Amino acid sequence: MTALTTTPQTRVAAPVSGPVRRRPRRLITPGDVGRLVGLIVATALTLGPVLWTLWTALTPLDTETGQRVFGLAAFADVLDQVNLGLLIWNSALVTILVAAGQMITAAMAGYVFAKIEFRGRRLLFGLVLATMMVPLQVTIVPVFMLLRGMGLADTLLALIIPALPTAFGTFLMRQYFLTLPTELGEAAEIDGAGPWRTFFLVYAPLAAPGLAIVGILAFNYHWNEFFRPLILTISEENFTLPLGLVSLQGNLGTGSVATVLAGVVISMIPALIVFVFGQRPLREGLTAGSGK
C-alpha cells in the first residue's frame, strides 16, 4: 500500500491587463529656477564669510616665505597673546547668569501680564514694550553712573544685573502664557493653590518651550556682546571674550589677520554648541502655538 502524496498547487499571478501607467515628470518652471538661484545666493552670503574666516585662520601667512601655511599656528598665537581661559570664564559666567535670570524674570512677568488681572495692567505692559524702542546707547550713561554709585563699576555684576530684565522676553512669555488654558489655573485655585503655586506647578512646566527660546536668544546675544563690556569694564581681568579678542589686532591694527580670525573661530564654538543642542526646543517653542 503506497502513501498518497500531494503537492501544493502554485498559483500563477494573472497578467495585468492594460499598459503600465507612469507618473508624469514634473517640468522645471522658471519659478523653480529662480527659487534655486535665490537659495544658492542666500547660502553663499551666509556661509561665505564663515568659510573664509575658517580658511584664513587655518592658513596663516608665513612672515619668512610670504606664503600661506596650513596649520594651527594662528590658534597657538591666540593662546600666547591673551589669557583665553579667563576670557572664556568671564563670558560664560556672565552669559549663563544673564540667560538664567532672563528666563526667570520673563516667565514671572509674562505670567502676571497674561493671567493675573489688576488695574493698569495694559498701561504697564505698554510701558514695558516702549522700552524696546529706546536704544542701548541712550541708557548706557545713566546705567554706568548708577552702577558707579552702587560701587559695582568695573565688575562682572555690572554686566549681569542691568541685563536681567528683558522686555522682549516678557512680551514673548506673555504671548505664550495666553495660549495656555485658563481652566488649568482655575482648577488649581479650586484645589487650594495660590498664585505662586499655580505658576510654579502648573504653568511654568508647560512654558518650557517658550523659556528655551528666551534662554537661547539671551545666550547668543550676550555671548557676542561687545558694547556694554567696553563701557562698563576697565580692568583686563574683567574683560569678556569679544572684548579680549580686540587686543589681538595689535597696535594700530598691526596684528595678524589670521590670529584675529582664529580667536573669532574659538568664540563661535560655544554658540554653535548651544545652537546644535538647542535647535529642537527652539523649533518646538516657535511652533507650539501654531496649532491652537
UniProtKB/TrEMBL annotation:
One GO term describing the cellular component: plasma membrane
Segments passing through the bilayer: 33-55, 87-111, 123-144, 156-177, 198-219, 257-277
Source taxon at top rank: Bacteria
Main subcellular localisation: membrane
One record GO biological process: transmembrane transport
Pfam family, one: BPD_transp_1
Keywords annotated in UniProt: Cell membrane, Membrane, Sugar transport, Transmembrane, Transmembrane helix, Transport
ABC transmembrane type-1 domain span: 88-278
Record membrane topology: Multi-pass membrane protein
Membership in a protein family: Belongs to the binding-protein-dependent transport system permease family.
Name listed for the protein in its UniProt record: Multiple sugar transport system permease protein
